[in-house]
Amino acid sequence: MPGTKGSGRPGGNPDLEAYQFEQKYDWDEPCTALLSLRIPPNIKEKLKELPNWQERVRKAIAAELEKAPPQSEAN
Questions:
Q1: Would you say 57 and 47 are in contact if contact means Cβ atoms under 8 Å apart?
Q2: What is the 3-state secondary structure (H, E, C) of 12-37?
Q3: Are 51 and 57 in contact (CB under 8 A)?
Q4: In this predicted structure, what is the pLDDT of residue 38?
């Protein structure tokens, strides 16, 4: 009977590795934090036209952070 505890295949799926989630991008940790910022509408439109724009923005922010001088902890 579908949808019940007994409806699964005994022993599980033998091809589970073929269907498991694979990380799409090479980050050391999952991208779960959200960031919101305001940009001009024309820039947003141009960004959305780029293929894979979210990952490009993540990489641009990461590259900018690597270039930035370290902040002192006194601030």
A1: yes
A2: CCCCHHHHCCCCCCCCCCCCCCCCCC
A3: no
A4: 97
* pLDDT tens column, 17-67: 777 766 677 888 888 899 999 999 999 999 999 999 999 999 999 999 989
Contacts for 19 with CB less than 8 Å, ≥ 6 apart: 13
The dihedral over CA atoms of 55, 61, 26, 48, expressed in degrees to the nearest 10, equals 0
The pTM score is: 0.60
Buried b (16+ CB within 10 A) or exposed e, 36-54: eeeeeeeeeeeeeeeeeee
Domain boundaries, the chain: 39-68
